[in-house]
Amino acid sequence: MTTAARHPALADALAGLPRVVDLLAARAEEHDRDACFPYQGIEAVHEAGLLTLTVSERYGGAGCGLADTVRVLTELGRGDPSVALVGALTLLTHAQQALAPYWPEAVYADLLADSVRGPALIGVLGPDDHRASPAPAGPAAPAAETTARRDGQDWRLTGRAPRVAGAEALAWMVVSARTGEEPGQTALFLVQGDAPGVQIEPTWDQLGLRATASHDVLFDDVLVGPEAVVHTSAPVLDRSWLDLALPAVHLGVARAARDWLLAALRPGPQDGRLHAALGGIEVDLVTAEELLHSLARRIDEGDPEGPARTAAARIVATRAAIGAVEQAVALSGSAGLSRAHPLERHFRDVQHARGHGAGTQDLLAEAGRLALLRGGRRANGA
């Protein structure tokens, strides 16, 4: 039995997904040009029940699994990847609370209450591999440096978090900060987006995903009570969910590019070379989608071998998404690079797939180390 069959809220949300995608697509070009945050799009996602799908059933939610989350994010990415990426961290944070709770119950109850009143977006401000920031770090990027000091029973946060997706609209932030109590020791601080001392510095001016408004967040002596501090070294977000959910957004971008290309070209029955080129795009996208969906199902089912394969799936899906859009641009000629058509925007947006979390070389190196480790075990008869 599918998750949709188990919980009516999930079935209703998935049934309304096509309408939401159409609404997002209708405004995506406007938000890209203005680089303004898509409040209406986020509101539409919230009203459809899509923003809280991964809230656990024990908290009254639908308990959406990874496979359905991948499906939702792929579709939202077809409509507007900026909305999809901003919503992804909220979905992943609720999923992590369902898998291995780390939010204190009282604080999480406040978050759920906020989610009833309106879109309660969550930002994760910490290691790059645990974020959905659409821009890679670089020499010109400000260093992520947030520190916390004790103030009686409370804490005070000071510092900066760069490139925070949806910074201006976040209801809550999960902030990783050095406590200074021991060398290298950190803790997680659950901060409300409108807390005194939280400031947004408008620094976001990137090639694509402009509507994510991924500005810097500054903390100026922000007070955090002891009930909202998590002293843990556990990862903020589950690696498997990150590896599969974020590339799904970019596969959605590639699908939108493919759809535009098919409508624009309309090849005749004798265009064999063009058919083959379109077939190449389709094969790459289908392969990547099937890989993401099959692994997501395995993880939902508790397959212990599944998580070891998600980094590879992330690489394959990212390459497929970027390659498909680049091929679409090549086939469309100058029209594909004209701002009069959405393909130019899709091309810019999909380039940011390279900037999410660990880089491809790091993921490949990790895969190589694991392969060597498994090979050594087999050679020793383990």
TrEMBL record:
<feature type="compositionally biased region" description="Low complexity">
    <location>
        <begin position="133"/>
        <end position="144"/>
    </location>
</feature>
<dbReference type="InterPro" id="IPR013107">
    <property type="entry name" value="Acyl-CoA_DH_C"/>
</dbReference>
<protein>
    <submittedName>
        <fullName>Acyl-CoA dehydrogenase family protein</fullName>
        <ecNumber>1.-.-.-</ecNumber>
    </submittedName>
</protein>
<feature type="domain" description="Acyl-CoA oxidase/dehydrogenase middle">
    <location>
        <begin position="144"/>
        <end position="222"/>
    </location>
</feature>
<keyword id="KW-0560">Oxidoreductase</keyword>
<dbReference type="InterPro" id="IPR037069">
    <property type="entry name" value="AcylCoA_DH/ox_N_sf"/>
</dbReference>
<feature type="domain" description="Acyl-CoA dehydrogenase C-terminal">
    <location>
        <begin position="248"/>
        <end position="356"/>
    </location>
</feature>
<dbReference type="InterPro" id="IPR006091">
    <property type="entry name" value="Acyl-CoA_Oxase/DH_mid-dom"/>
</dbReference>
<dbReference type="InterPro" id="IPR013786">
    <property type="entry name" value="AcylCoA_DH/ox_N"/>
</dbReference>
<dbReference type="InterPro" id="IPR009100">
    <property type="entry name" value="AcylCoA_DH/oxidase_NM_dom_sf"/>
</dbReference>
<dbReference type="Pfam" id="PF02771">
    <property type="entry name" value="Acyl-CoA_dh_N"/>
</dbReference>
<feature type="region of interest" description="Disordered">
    <location>
        <begin position="129"/>
        <end position="152"/>
    </location>
</feature>
<feature type="domain" description="Acyl-CoA dehydrogenase/oxidase N-terminal">
    <location>
        <begin position="24"/>
        <end position="88"/>
    </location>
</feature>
<dbReference type="Pfam" id="PF02770">
    <property type="entry name" value="Acyl-CoA_dh_M"/>
</dbReference>
<dbReference type="InterPro" id="IPR036250">
    <property type="entry name" value="AcylCo_DH-like_C"/>
</dbReference>
<dbReference type="Pfam" id="PF08028">
    <property type="entry name" value="Acyl-CoA_dh_2"/>
</dbReference>
<dbReference type="InterPro" id="IPR046373">
    <property type="entry name" value="Acyl-CoA_Oxase/DH_mid-dom_sf"/>
</dbReference>
<keyword id="KW-0285">Flavoprotein</keyword>
<dbReference type="GO" id="GO:0016491">
    <property type="term" value="F:oxidoreductase activity"/>
</dbReference>
